[in-house]
Amino acid sequence: MCGIIGYIGKKQAMPILMDGLRKESYRGYDSSGIVVFDAQNNATCLKAVGKLENLENKIQGQELKGEIGIGHVRWATHGEVTETNAHPHTGCQENIFVVHNGIIENYREIREKLIEKGHKFVSETDTEVVAHLVEHFFDGNLEDAVRKALKLVKGAYALAVVAKEDPNKIVVAKLSSPLIIGIGKDEYLVASDQNAIAPYAKKIITLEDNEVVTITPDDLCIIKEREPEDLEIETGKTEKGKYPHFMLKEIMEQADSIEMPLKGRVRFDQGLAKLGGLDQVSDKLKDIERINIVACGTAYLAGLTAEYMLEEYAGIPCEVDFGSEFRYRKPILNKKTVVLAISQSGETADTLAGIKEAKEKGVMTLGIVNAVGSTIARETDAGIYNHAGPEIGVASTKAFTSQLTVLALLALFLGRQRQMSLITGQNIARELLNIPALIRELLKSEAKIKELAEKYKNYKNFFFIGRKYNFPIACEGALKLKEISYIHAEGYSGGEMKHGPIALIDESFPTIALCPSDSVYEKMVSNIEEIKARKGPVIAIATEGNEKIKELVDDVIYIPKTLEMLTPILSVIPLQLFAYYTGVLNKCDVDKPRNLAKSVTVE
Ligand code: M6R
C-alpha cells in the first residue's frame, strides 16, 4: 500500500528517494512520484503510472539536483490509477507539495468548501484537499499551516509536506498511519517503514498519533522529547536467489522459517514452550478466561486455526474476528480477556484498530507479528515475534506457517499453565520440533503439484473443503488461488457443502479436499463421496500411506503424518504450491497480484 519517503541533508536527494521507493514497492503500488527542491528552491515534480522503472525513465535526462525532496508509491483508493492522481499533490500556486498515506474521510466536504473559495482541483484523490487546505492557511510558516489544516481533517494520515516559500524543511504528521524519521549523519529521512531507510539511518524516531514535526537539515523540532530508538530491520535475504519468484522462494524456505520461531522456545524435557516475549504478562495470563483474536486475510485464517488449538489444548474459549469487524460488533471484553492480534506486517490498519479498541477498554493485548519494530509490535502489551524473515511476495506463505507454529507454541504455553499434562506437553513439543524435517520431505512433491496445476489450470471455479483444523486451511487454499491466479475459489467446511454450495458441483467444478488421517477423516470421506456422486473432480490432500483414498478421488497429494493440531502447517503447503503454479501457468504476476498490497495500512 502507499509508501512515503523523504530526505533532507547534504546529499543529493533523488537517488536516496528512489532507493527508498524501491524498498517500499513490495508493499504494493500502482503509480509513483517525487518532488525535489534545488538550491534556489525550484521544485521539480515527476510522476508515473505503473512500475517504478517508468518513473526512473522520466527522471533520466532531467536535472533533478537538490538536497531536499519527498516521494511516494501510491496504491489507489480514491480515484483511478493515473498520473494526475499520483502523489505528490500540490495546491493552485504549486507552492505546497504533499505525499500522504491513509484516507481523508471528509475530503468531499472540505473540497466543496475550498472550491467555493476559488480553489481548483485537478485530481480525484482525497489527498489533494490537504495540499489545498495547507495552501489556504499558509502565510509563510509551513508548520502552522499544516497544524491548522489537520484540525479540519478527519480520517487517517501519514503526511510529508514541503513548501517553496518556507524552504529547507519537511513538515511531517501522523494519525493512525505509520511514519518514522530516520536520523543519519547530518541528514534526516522520513519513511513508512524501516527497511526503506536502513542504509542511511541507524536511529529512528517513530512518530506518535497527532504529532506534527518540522525537520530541517540540522534539527528536529519534536514537542514530546524522547530518545531515538535503534533501527531494527528484519534479518534475512530479500533477494530471490535461484528462484524465479519470491513466492516460490518463500514457499520453499518454510522448513527454515519454521525452525526459527521454534529455536530456543521448545523445552522438550519439561514439555513447555518458553516465550520470552510473554514473560512480563505470564502471571496475568494464568487468570485469563477468554481470548479474542483479531486479524485479517491469511492471518485471520491462522487465527481460526488457533481457535481449535487453544480450545482443545489450553481449554480457553476463543473468538476470532476480522480486524475490520471487531470493534463494530461491540465485543464484550473484560479484565479476564486478552485481545490477540496476528499480523505479518504489524501495520494492518484494521487489526491495529482492534488493538486500539481493546486498549481503550483496558484489556490486555498481545501480538504475533513478523515485522520487528512494527506498529502492532509496539502497541501491544506483549507478544511473540515470528522470526520468519522478510516476506516479500504479496501472498502470505511462510508467514502463515510460522503464525501457525507460534500459535501452537502459545497453546502449549497456556495449556501447561493450566490442565495440560507433562506427557501431552512433551508430545506437542516433540512433534513441533519434527515439523521442519517433515516439510523438507513434503516439498519434494513440488514437481507432482506442478503437474496437477498443469492439468487443472483451465478450470474456472474451485472448491476447497476441510473440517476442524483443516477447515481454515481450505479457506486459505481458496484465498491463495484467487489472489494469485484470479480463479474463483471458495473455501468451505466439508460438512457445510450439502447445505447449499453442492448445488454448484458438476464435472466442470473441481474440489480440493483436505482429508488427512485425523479425527474427522471418515466425515471428510462422506463429503467427498457426495461430491463424486455429482461428478465433481476431486484432488485429495491425504496422509502418506492412505492408498484407499485413490479409489475415490481423481488425484492425491500426500502429506506426512503428524499430530492433528499441527497438520495445517503441512497441509497448506501443497495448496500454496498449487496456487503458485496455477498462477505462473496462467501468466499472472504472482509476486505482485493485481489490486493487492502487501501492507494494508488503510481501514
Ligand atoms: O500483514 P498482515 O498479516 O496483517 O496482513 C493481513 C492480510 O492483509 C494478508 O494476510 C493478506 O490476506 C495476504 N494477501 C494473504 O496472502
Q: What would your notes on this structure say?
A:
A hairpin with a 4-residue loop joins strand 15 (266-267) and strand 16. The chain is built from 18 helices and 26 strands. The protein is of the alpha/beta class and 603 residues long. The mean pLDDT is 94. 34% of the residues lie in helices and 22% in strands. It is globular, with a radius of gyration of 25 Å. The longest helix is centred in the C-terminal third of the chain and has 21 residues, at 422-442. The strands form 5 sheets. The chain has an 8-stranded antiparallel β-sheet, covered by helices on one side. Helix 3 (107-116) crosses helix 4. Among the domains are: 3-237, Aminohydrolase, N-terminal nucleophile (Ntn) domain (Glutamine Phosphoribosylpyrophosphate, subunit 1, domain 1), CATH 3.60.20.10; 443-589, 3-Layer(aba) Sandwich (Rossmann fold), CATH 3.40.50.10490. The structure holds 5-amino-5-deoxy-1-O-phosphono-D-mannitol.
Q: What is the secondary structure topology, with strand pairs?
A:
Blueprint: E1 3-8, H1 13-24, E2 31-37, E3 43-49, H2 52-59, E4 68-74, E5 89-90, E6 96-104, H3 107-116, H4 128-137, H5 142-152, E7 155-163, E8 170-175, E9 180-183, E10 188-191, E11 203-206, E12 211-215, E13 220-221, E14 229-230, H6 246-252, H7 254-262, E15 266-267, E16 272-273, H8 282-285, E17 290-295, H9 297-314, E18 318-322, H10 323-326, E19 337-343, H11 349-360, E20 364-369, H12 375-379, E21 382-385, H13 398-417, H14 422-442, H15 446-456, E22 461-466, H16 471-485, E23 488-493, E24 511-514, H17 521-532, E25 538-543, E26 555-559, H18 567-585
Parallel strand pairs: 17-18, 17-19, 19-20, 20-21, 22-23, 22-24, 24-25, 25-26
Antiparallel strand pairs: 1-4, 1-10, 2-3, 2-4, 5-6, 6-7, 7-8, 8-12, 9-10, 9-11, 11-14, 12-13, 15-16
The chain binds 5-amino-5-deoxy-1-O-phosphono-D-mannitol.
